[in-house]
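Incident log, structure service

09:12 report received: a user says their structure output differs between two submissions of the same chain.
09:20 pulled the input from the user's history:
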Amino acid sequence: MPLTEAEMRRAVLGGAFSLAGIALFVGFAVFVLLLSSDVSSILTAVLEPYILQVLRFTLLQALLSTLLSIACAIPVAQALARQQHFPGRIWIIRLMAVPMGLPVLIGALGLIGIWGRQGLTNALLLKLGMAEPISIYGLSGILLAHVFFNMPLACRLMLAALERVPAEYWLMASGLGMRPGSIFRFIEWPVLRSVIPGIAGLIFMLCATSFTLVLTLGGGPAATTVEVAIYQSLRFDFDPGRAVTLSLLQIALTSVVLGALSCLPAYGDEGMTVGKAIRRPDGRLLGARLVDGSILLFAALFLGLPLMSVLLAGLRSNLMRLLGEPIFWQSAATSLAISISAATIALLVSMMLVGARRAALLRRSGISGAGAFFAAMGGASSLVLLVPPIVLATGWFLALRSFGDASAVAPLLIVAINALMSLPFVMRVLEPAFIVHKRRTQKLAASLGVSGWMRLRLIDMPALIKPVLTAFSFAMALSLGDLGAVALFGSDSFVTLPWLVYSRMGSYRTNDADGLALILGILCLLLTIAGTMGPARREVAFHG
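09:34 re-ran on a clean worker, output below:
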């Protein structure tokens, strides 16, 4: 049932207001960057050997990280898909969700604990007579860390695609006596081939805009990405000209990547099914079970050991002393205030954008320009992908430094940047639930004359509370663990928990950093878990 004119007007105005706010915030930062630049000097600076080296390393590490993440994810996804009754399978799948909800800085500390100079791996290899064979810093460490964070994401997406294969395919494969090689060639690979380009593009984008991992594990000028070089240009060298050049270069890079992603084909449909239970013939043989079990065990160790390292190192630190320090409570209060504010803004803006997109979708066929408005509402949430947080922070930093100390408004800027950073994820959680719920309940609610606060309390809140809590908690966790936006504005008077962890690492107070990392990691994981909990949905009674 179409919206009333009043509902349509409120939805369009809310979406337009949100779109204007996002465009002004992002556009002003880009405008300042362009205003602070000179075309001829930019062209000259881009050809500098240092900037060319930074660009080359950014692309190289992103490409290698993507290839390694995809190559490692394929056998793990296959093993999970084949072994439906593997002991602990559900816990391995859950374990793969942990790196996605864990602050990047905490994951880096865990990897250092396993692969670092004093880590478990080097300790074992030293006993075998090898002198410090593995270095966590530089390109090898960055690749290792990117695989740790991105392989689980790729694996879960591939597993979802493989589990959509109709059971009739496996029945036919069993009847034909197909061997594992043929099953991969004719059934699995066509499915994986349809999703790998999109997954690879997403991982490449995440690695090309990686900041915290490279800042922590980069290991010097030879292993620096564009975003880290921007930070170094302002924080250490105070060379605004170079920072502007690098920021515009980063925008150009993300534009090209996003443009390439938009050209990728949509996922294919694996076919119709009557919903029979899946019984794969290729996972029953003893050899296949041993190989798959070994792969899953290795994946569990690769992901679980760094997390265990963070836990054990944190417990070995003096947690009571850390909890008694005023700086801890100051940074915790700052982080919580920023994360709650950013999550609230992201949630409100997302709801307005989703409402406007639904209004445009309902009027798409009758009003010219409704399609463009629909696309603009969706594109607004992705502007932060085009202009990454460190670039936004650079533009606003350059704008505010002419007015004096930028730290006075730093909390407000970081809240806005973190809200924008969370927006794409919040939209992807809210929009499907919101659209489906409205489609199911609109006619019945209108026929009963239920509207306004009564509809919100009786119909909308019971059905949408779980996706709203999921989006809010995920946005809070993302903001709570963020270091990128704080990196330019962090100081002795403005400290967040991630900045406190990083500063303790920089001053070689590793025990303190381990304890603080454990506390921060637990907070973020509790938020992630809380987002998956909530009351059962009660929308069945309102289906129309």
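09:41 both user submissions now match this output. Likely a transient worker issue. Closing.
09:42 reviewer note: The longest helix spans residues 410-448. The chain has a mean pLDDT of 80.
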